[in-house]
Structure formats: structure tokens, C-alpha cells
Amino acid sequence: MAITTFAAIDVGSFDLQLAIYEISQKNGIRCLDHMRKTVGVGADTYADGKISTHLIDSMCTILKGFCQVMEEYQVKDCRAYATSALREAGNRQIVLDQIRVRTGIRVKVLSNSEQRFLCYKAIAVKENEFQSIIKKGTAIVDVGSGSTQLSLFDKDALVTTQYLKLGALRIKETLGHLDYDRVNYRMLIQELVDNDIDTFRKMFLKDRDIKNIIATGLCALYLNRKGGGDRRADKMTVQEFMDFCGRMERMSPEKLSLEMDIPIEHAYLMPPSVMIFRKMIEITGAELLWIPGVNLCDGIVAEYGEEKRLISFTHDFTEDILVAARNISKRYQGNKKHNQSLEKLALDIFDSMKKYHGLGQRERLLLQLSVILHDCGKYISMREPAESSYHIIMATEIIGISHREREIVAYIVKYNTTKYEYEKIMNEVRNPETTNIIAKLVAIMRVGNALDKSHKQKFDHVKMSLKEQKLVIVTETSEDISLEQNTFENRARFFEEVYGIKPVLKRKRGV
Q: Which of 58, 169, 300, 344 could join 145 in a cystine, given CB atoms 3.0 to 4.6 angstroms apart?
């Protein structure tokens, strides 16, 4: 039985974590060791916009120690990811280079949507409980050091996920000049929390019946901890949680640290974290709090295990990404029937052209997302819908999609109906491979869109085949397709320019 020893490193806003795992197809994932070293990287970033030399030195020292531990465990593979503190640091590239040169570790900075998606996968590893919980209306409340992510499920489907710049450490730093013991300190925290979450409630909770809250994040790990560090059940009723809140509010950070056996630095972060969880319980009327006890390292190993086919999930994460995109389209009143028709046409063209585009399933997903979101800009401007769609996509996070991938989707949508500007795209993207992906998917999108130019879904039983450097598209329809035919011929030129293959539209004889 093949067993892989894997290390996950989380370069977080408040601490650095190393977790060592064993992964096998028979036994799944087993954590062998876990260590956490506190380094307030986020305090520098959130206050000054960059990370100090002193903290860079501290990070490198800790990471060198991690390397020694990995050698002792004979780790076969390792992944190191960083979150909001590095993501928002003005000197991010310098920090990453220093870490690489001084420790040999290459750290990837996650976009917020990638980070939350990994935490989501970590929860899904606890498959039986996760699937049972999300059968009812559920909110995942992931409270990090720099931000909070709120994700809503309804009948197994991800409805929406929203980023709030509202994290435990960020709140602490915002109120950093105030005395913790002041009577109104916690009231000020509550005001900060209420402001953002009330906006979320108005926009996304109107008709939602939320029964369960899944609590994740650093401080969530301590919610079900008794004095002395013992663990208890990972589920709490609302009454149990409120009782905990009442006890915590009467404690100083020092006493909280002692009673719960947690580091004093973490004790200072408990009040803002708990207030976010409490506010979500209040506005949703949830009855149960589930604390799965996972962290980003658990998500990193889950991602790795899935990629290497050492573990598998029954939950369809790709469908979650697509559902999230469809809900964005719905918010901007996208044309559902047109999108469904175009989605099938574009994906059929993509699948027919595999030999020529050399792209994989991930790029196929990006094309699908582009179709779903391509007309959302009409909600903003009928005069410049493509430009408006571009800005909407760039400003809207889609869980599980990196910033680069979101940028690809935005460009595909933008140049679906506007003149393709090779040089401008190259200068903006600054990556030849990404530029080529955009061109290939734009070409497919344009031809697919031409086939439903009228938005009336005129074509039935479309068949596609490659013959003698031609993509032959045969359709059955008795309707007038003059508009589609004319648009198709115009769009086919760019397709031929990109692929060297000429699209040809044919109506089946006898129709």
C-alpha cells in the first residue's frame, strides 16, 4: 500500500503553521504532526501596508525550522500558501523572494476565493457530516485574521459566497489605540461587525431559511474547548454558544487564556471572532453550530490528495463554482435560456477542437463561466455591455477561481463582442500562455454566440465534426437563420485566424 508523506505550510496573517500528513488510498488522510508559531505579519500589513525587515527575519527563521521537521519526517512533497497579510503587502514580492532564497520554500499567495475554497474542501473531507449538514439551509462562517467569508447552502447547492474585510486581527488593529478594558471596547467591535453583516443580510438572506452554521477559522477551533485544553463535542446548540459568549465577556484576555488553555495572543482575537459568529446566528435564526475543527493546512492536503488521486470526494465542487456563477448572472438578470443554449454550443465546439486547442478541463470550466456571465453587463449599460461585464467580473469573487482565472474569464467576455486587441491584451496580461488561452476561448465563444444571435434558440440537434481543416456545424431548423448565418460568417474569420480551422454552418437537407 503506497503511503505519501506530505507537508502543508500556512503562512498566515497571525501565525505560521506546519502540518505533516500521511495520505493513502486505503486510509485517506492522517495528521502526524502539527505546529504553530505566532508571527504578527498581518499587524504590519494592516497598519503600514508592508511587512517589516524584522518580521521577514522571524518568518525565515521559523520556516527554516519547519524544513528541519520535514526532513525528519522524510516528507515527499510540500506546498506552502500565504493568505491576506502577504496578499495585501506592498512589498510582497520582496518577502516571497527572501523566503525562497533563505529557506528554499516557494510560497504561493492565494487569492481570497482560492483560500476559502481550500477551507471548504477541508470541511468536505468530513464527508458524512458535511453532506448531512448542508441538506438544510447552512451558512459557512469562516472568520480569518484579515477577513471573513460567508457562504450559503440551500439543499446541497452553494447559493452565494461573499467576502467581508472583517477579520479578527484586522478589527483588533483598527481599535488598536483603544484600551481593551474600556467599557465600550466590545461595543465598538459590535458596531464594526454589525455594519458589514447587516448589509449581507439585506442582500442575501431575504428568503433564506438557515438552520445550521459551520464555524471555521483560528478562533473557531477554541469554541468547543473546555478548561485544560480537552475537546468536547464538535456541535453546539445556540443556547450553549450564547452561554459561552456570556462567560467570555466577563473574562479578561489573561483569564480567557488560562481558562481555555490558549495562547494570550489568540485570547485577544476571541471577542471579535465570537461576535461575528453570534451576529450570524442572530440574523439567520440558526439552531445549530458545527465546529469541524479544520484549518487551511487541512484544505491544502485535501487539494493535494485529490489532485494525486489518493482521495476522492462525492461532493461536486465544480458544480459549486458553476452554481455560484449562475447566481451572479441571476443577480444581474442574465438571459437564462440564451445562456443555457450558448453553454451547450460553446462546450460542444470546445470538445470538438481538443486536438487543436490543447486545453484541459480547467480551461473548459473557464469557458463555461464566461458563457454564464457574458451578458451581466447589460444590467449596468446597454450601450457598453461588454465593458460593464468585464468590470463586474473583475470586481466579483467566484469561489474556487484564482485572480488570474477570473481575469481570463473577464477578457473572454469583454472581447466576445468587441474588437480583439492582441497587443493591448499582451501588455495587460504580460503572460504569453494566458494570452493564448484568452484568444482560443474568445474564438470559441464568438462562434457559439453567433449561433444564437437572435436569442431565440433556433437550432435543434446540432452536430459538429472536423473535416479537411474545417469545423462543420450541421443543424436542423425550419426557421429563418439569416441573422445567425451572417453573424456566423463574420465571427468565423477570427476563429480561423486563431486555429487555422474554418467553421462552416450547414442546414440539414430536407429541413
A: 169
Question: Using the 8-state DSSP alphabet, how is residue 111 labeled?
Answer: P
Rounded Cα gap, residues 314 and 117, in angstroms: 16
**What CA–CA distance (Å, rounded) separates 476 from 279?**
56
Q: Beta 157-164 vs 15-24: how paired, if at all?
A: unpaired
Stated as kind and residue range, the H or E segment containing 65 is helix 53-72
Residue where the block lists cell 475543527 = 293
Q: Which residue's C-alpha cell is 477551507?
A: 119
Contact by Cβ (8 Å): 79, 107: no
Reduced to 3 states (helix: H, G, I; strand: E, B; else coil), residue 38 is strand
Query: Which grid cell is 192?
Result: 464594526
Other beta carbons within 10 angstroms of residue 95's beta carbon come to 26
Cell (9 digits) for 493? 474569420
What is the secondary structure of 282-351 as a DSSP string?
HHHT--EEE-----HHHHHHHHHHHHTTSS--SS-HHHHHHHHHHHHHHHTT--HHHHHHHHHHHHHHHH
SS3 content of the chain, % helix, strand, coil (to 5): 55, 20, 30
CB-based contacts of 366, cutoff 8 Å, min separation 6: 405, 408, 409, 412, 437, 441
Q: Annotate 469-494 with DSSP letters as a single string.
A: TEEEEEEE--S--HHHHHHHHHHHHH
Cβ 216 vs Cβ 121: under 8 Å: no
Give the C-alpha separation, 388 to 406, whole Å: 15
Tens digits of pLDDT across the chain (511 residues):
578 999 999 998 888 999 999 999 888 899 999 999 988 788 888 888 899 999 999 999 999 999 999 999 999 999 999 998 899 999 999 999 999 999 999 999 998 888 888 998 999 888 888 888 988 899 999 998 888 999 998 877 788 888 888 888 888 777 766 655 555 667 777 887 888 898 889 888 887 899 999 999 878 888 866 444 444 458 889 998 998 888 888 888 899 888 888 888 888 888 889 889 999 999 999 999 999 989 999 999 999 999 998 988 888 889 989 988 998 999 999 999 999 999 999 999 999 999 999 999 999 999 999 999 999 999 999 889 999 999 999 998 888 888 899 999 999 999 999 999 989 999 998 899 999 999 999 999 999 999 998 888 888 788 999 988 999 999 888 888 889 889 999 999 999 999 999 999 988 754 5
Other CB atoms within 10 A of residue 377 CB: 24
Residue type, 406: R
Amino acid identity of residue 225, one-letter, is: R
- Alpha carbon 401 to its chain centroid, in Å, reads 5
